[in-house]
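Lay summary

Proteins are chains of building blocks that fold into shapes. Our project writes down both the chain and a compact code for its shape. Here are two examples, one after the other.
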Amino acid sequence: MIDTGYALAGALAGFVVGLTGVGGGALMTPILLIFFGVSPNTAIATDLWFAAITKLVGATVHYSNGNVDWQVAKRLWLGSIPMALLIVFTVSLGAQFAKANWLMKTVGVVVLITAVGLLVAPKLVAFARDRRIDQPERFIALQPTLTVLSGSVLGLCVALTSVGAGALGSVMLLYLYPLRMTPHRLVATDIVHAIPLVVVAGLGYLFAGMVDGKMLSSLLAGSLPTVLLGSILAGKISGRWIQVFLALVLGAAGVKVLM
């Protein structure tokens, strides 16, 4: 039985993910916490699998358009996958890690950081572009190491809160690759990187029995059609105005979660 409320929430998040690469965790987890009153551990566990399946469907469109930067994705995976595995191992030991009292606040803080990152992304890109042009050799030499470190941060955030793979990841990529990451390549690479990351991060929660299968089915019923629509439109329109609106919504959601 499909729950209409969850399906509508999934449809909204799916469209935003397809269009911008952002929203699988940053948008869905606060929605589940604030509007549906889902417990933090269940919201995070279910959202990880929601994001994995939704982004997998959206990635097919971006992949077919040849927009994925595989070198950058592999560098991110070198940092994010091992970190996520570490968290998975910790969760699988007894699932007490995911029941900590500070989990709700951690989600709120990461969502707020995500919102700020989305708002200041253009200024970060301008700063990084100047450095890239003024000191090209030094900037390029540091890119691989900084990308792996960024992946580690994303792996930690995603495994703990389910937030960050898309929103924080896109901001990091814009800063690290200001000339290389065109808008369409950014969305495609961000989505493709997130898929194995959220699957790995979600395994510990799945084995611990925290994933709500019925909720997940309803969320996917809404998201799968709209993520395809968003992915198709991503090659035709700019998602910047949606990112700004999303940042404002996430800022309010982060404050609400913290309160």
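And here is the second example, written the same way.
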Amino acid sequence: MSSSALPILEPQSAPSFYGFSRARLAARLAEMGVPEYRADQLFAWVYQKNTRDPARMTNLPAGLRESLPSICDLGLPGQSAVLSSPDGNTHKFVLQLKDGARVESVSMRTARRLTFCISSQVGCALKCAFCATGLMGLKRNLRAEEIVAQVVAMCDFHGWKDERFNIVYMGMGEPLANLAAVAESIRILHDERGLNMGARRITVSTSGLVPQILEMAKMNLQIGLAISLHATTDELRDELVPVNKRWPIRELLAAAEEYSRTVGRRTTLEYTLLGGVNDGPEDADRLAAIARAMPSKVNIIPYNPVPGLPWKRPSAEAIDAFAQRLYPHAPAVTVRDTKGGDIWAACGQLGGLSPDA
């Protein structure tokens, strides 16, 4: 079949472009009689030239340009809202999906880099005690195209000016509970003919799904792993991160260490600091011991308040004291600079806090 005779289907029946790997797109084109190399060109137009208008894809035959809407849908989710922090460095995106579900993503700019915090689920089933998303419960998993589309939407907003941005799967949901779609989205984002995202610029965070950590290690994606630790004893972690009752700290750290050995990267230990709960000197000492026992770095996250939850952010003095106790004993320690708290975009605040929620 020639490209000029391609069948025209109803546009709404076309699958999203952003869920296609280049190989799958080539196969779909081949089924319609289009040479497979056209997939390379389409990836370049969308991901490298930032063009989604078929009429502007001048190296494609006219017949293919006309038929493209029936082959794949190049549309992005609608934006219900884009909220900006007062300093203009943090933006929260509330995206409307085709079924009416909403998902939130965040872009954060510092002097050194732009980072996109993206979501993997609508809501979350893990019910971590201090997280707003957990209050929603799990609505559904996101598909790979809905994950990739978040990145493209944020690139659009920022004018595609930052070629070396970072991506963290730390938004709404537990990424490893949706591992197949998350892994596929990473492969699409990593494609050299697409956004060409380096593995070192992608990090996936988990609350502690041990089998999926080990499965991801076998995938050899080479991406960073962050563990939402938040406590140094099983008793407290059972309360803060209920999945710990299934896979306690010892099993979780063993899986993280196996991941680090397999991919050759340090694991980030994320530790949300809750005033009077897990911020004492003995907590710092146990956290330092954990960090020393494996290839790791520690990221301290001062708690970001969520309405209706009882937890408190420690004082600046308590945060500093905790960090100072860690510094001489842990391999690497950073204190996360809170960004987006004034627009409910900081860590732990996503979900259900949009303007019209």
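What can we say about the second shape? Residues 207 and 228 are 5 Å apart (CA to CA).
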